[in-house]
Write a structure and sequence with these properties.
The chain is mainly α and 121 residues long. The protein has five helices and no strands. The protein is elongated and about 50 Å long.
Length: 121
């Protein structure tokens, strides 16, 4: 299959759903970082690092799927790992509603990326 014919192939609903989950998670991680900073920067460094890693990974993963990169499958697997780590980090602050919303978005994205990592793109 040539690059041109590959790009003309319609995107599967599963891939579109994964892109949407990645972009939702990216936005939620960015909002949560801002939330942490507004709280006076009291969030542990590990949480901020997980949020940054997840935000960047999800954005890159969505970009790679949209352009049908041959590396997208591997990126989806890495993205699932980053999302799992971020969800776990956010769960360490269970009394914070923003952290819980972020953890949920991360878990949905991780599940979607895991499914895509097992699919042929």
């Amino acid at each position: 299959m040539t690059q041109q014919s590959h790009a003309a192939t319609p995107m599967s609903q599963e891939m579109q759903d994964c892109i949407d989950a990645c972009m939702t998670c990216h936005g939620m991680c960015e909002q949560t970082m801002s939330h942490c900073l507004q709280m006076g920067g009291d969030a542990p460094v590990e949480i901020m690092r997980a949020l940054m890693d997840c935000a960047e990974t999800t954005r890159l993963c969505a970009d790679m799927m949209m352009r049908r990169s041959p590396l997208a499958t591997e990126m989806c697997a890495m993205c699932a790992t980053a999302c799992d780590m971020c969800a776990e980090a956010c769960m360490s602050m269970p009394d914070d509603e923003q952290m819980m919303r972020c953890a949920e978005a991360c878990r949905r994205c991780a599940d979607s990326c895991r499914a895509m990592a097992g699919a042929t793109m």
